[in-house]
Write a structure and sequence with these properties.
The structure holds 2 protein chains of 2 kinds. Chain A is mostly helical. Chain A has one domain (about 5-45, about 50-330, about 485-580). Chain A contains 18 helices and 4 strands. Chain B has 2 domains: about 1-30; about 40-170, Cytochrome Bc1 Complex, Chain D, domain 2. The chains are: A mainly alpha, B mainly alpha.
Chain lengths: ~575, ~170
Amino acid sequence: MAEAGVSKGILKGVIKFTAILGAGFILLAVFKKMLPLPTEDGYRFFPLIGSRDWIWIVAQLHLNFAAFVLGVPIFAVTMEYLGWRKKEERLDRIAYDFTKLFTLAYTVTAVLGSIFLVSLPLLYPKFIDYMMKILGPTWWLYLIVMYGEVFVCYYYFYSWKKMKDQKGLHVLLGVLLNVLGATLLLITSAWVGFMTTPAGVSPDGELLSRWAAIHTHMWIPLFLHRFVANIVFGAGIAAAYAAFRFITAKTPEEKAYYDWMGYTSAIISIGASLLLPGVGYLLGVEIYSFNEQMGIQLMGGFFAWLWVMQAIMIGAILFFINYYLWISLQKMPGGERYFKYVKFLFIVLLLGYAVWITPHDVALSLEEARRTGTYHPALGKLGVMAAKNTAVILSYLATFLSFAIFRMSNKEPTVSWAKTGHRARAIIIVVSAAGVLALGIYSYLVSAAVRVKVLSPIQFGLFFVGLAALYILDNYMYKGAKTIGEPRWGRMPERSQYALIAITVTFTWLMGMLGYMRAGARQYWHVYGIMKNTSPDAFLPTHGYASVVVTIVTLLFFVLISLVFWSIMKLEQVVEKRRGH
Amino acid sequence: MKKGILKLAIIIVGLNLLFMYIGLEFLPQSESRPPKVIKIEEGISQDDLIHVGEEIVFGKGQCMVCHPAKPEAGMRAPAMSTIGAETEKEAKERGIKPEEQVLEALVNPSKYIVKGFEDIMSPVHTAPTSLTDGEIIAVAAYLQSQGGKVTLSYPGSVPILKDQISKISKAGGK
């Protein structure tokens, strides 16, 4: 694949995509003729597992791959740019490896997209007809942009080596690829935005304004949330790939490279995830302002326990990444000086985790609602937003400290004010932690509106200011610092790589669950408040059932992504063999 | 190497099974089905009307999502246990009948916002809640019963309800 000429590579790619898409359209037409007519209210039924579960599985798998192929180019091009400006070969290599990954994953994404394209209009014809009536032009725009994306993607990949002396131009190509990717994301977010927070239509569903139907409450916040989440997820998959390559590496050089790749990807993933609560908050605000009932139902109603599940998973991710960073101290000469802090960080994480997974009381029956009221009598005080926000922020602060310790552990500052700098470091940590805690306690005393709209943003703001201050201070203090020794990349126990894989598995499962919650917010509506779902599947299943489906999707995703990893290794072997000859 | 890959596979499958197990065993298992229309007989007794209203408030009406059962700090919406008494007081202040006040609060909630709260409620007669006339009157009767005097009946109060709904379209309400 990497050895093909540029035009040949692009042509191959475009033909492949046209064939996949064409097969989708042909199958759609054939099945439409073959299958019985839909029911009066516009449904066909998928055998054995039912239409809803089939669409659920295909859509989520397609979404996972789409997130991957849209997320990875963002940091691939960033790495390429940094490698070019810093003249660092290793950064260019990692950017190329990332590009190899998403270019191959494009095919799987397209195949899944085509299955989705065939399934949805066949199983839900009335709903799709309605969506086409309202947002049809955006679908054709989507197809055009997708072709542009395919063209630029293959151009970007196949021209890597040929354009090594025109790096500026090649980086621009990467930027264009990301602009097209972001446009695709904007279009698809408009579809979901309309289904969940519809606008621009009359109460009986007639189109009043197409632009209003696109520019819904959810549109931009959902796009931003997905954009950041795609980086988190894409980097997570890249970390998993690096872990897989580390474990299968045969030489110390390979081990060193993939160890570094795993570390870089994991830090990008966790670093970008710091933005998720902020963009998630924006999304939440828009859902609430569209319909308070939907917002509360999502946050504290039927789905309340899934937020506890989310807490279990993000808490686990924080433990995995901290564990990875703590193990990583072993490869840093001088890292042993910081072992003593690990137990304190562990305690903060543990306490934060305990508070975060404490459930808000959720009454499941009329009887229970009467008996307990809105909050659990004993744990209610910890199960509310005031406590949880505080716990989450402090856990993230502890994680950042693990990262800062790792980054600086093999260095000794040489500036004259190093002692004052260390004191300032401690003051920043204590002040931001105490500030977050104090605001959290004060949150109990104010109304929900003040807590959500004023105090929560201040808490997150304080956390980010603390992070920025620490980062800037460290950069100044460690400028020209004495290096105790270079990191011993590759000298990591295998269990560190299992932590990286665990992060990615947990992210994928979490993404599946949150996708279900976002779709479930519509309850028994195809388009909330406008088009009712009257199929036998028009209900929200039990959390256990949803967990089974999400597990199936995650396992299928890992089977498919393993095939992508395996294919890359095989292709590399073929290229190596050819070079050998 | 093979051992390493096997361990990776075990971690992937193991974590998935663990999350599935938590979902199956540690989370409450209930489905959320679309609400059914509750049939209310004409001439239903006041006690039965209040009882039906209570069922809707705690069920398909989803009122408890925002309204707490008893007053508490930081509540989003007025507490249920005192809502009848409060509504009577508000009606008196505004110089309208208590049944007008309570029905207006359900179908045109933006018209009058109780001090200290925000305009967050959606009308209950339109989608997505879509309660029928009888259901709305039953809910209103239950609300009145929480510390106030119940003055509503079905179908006797339907004209007052219709009047409140017609006021929204005239004013081009929410």
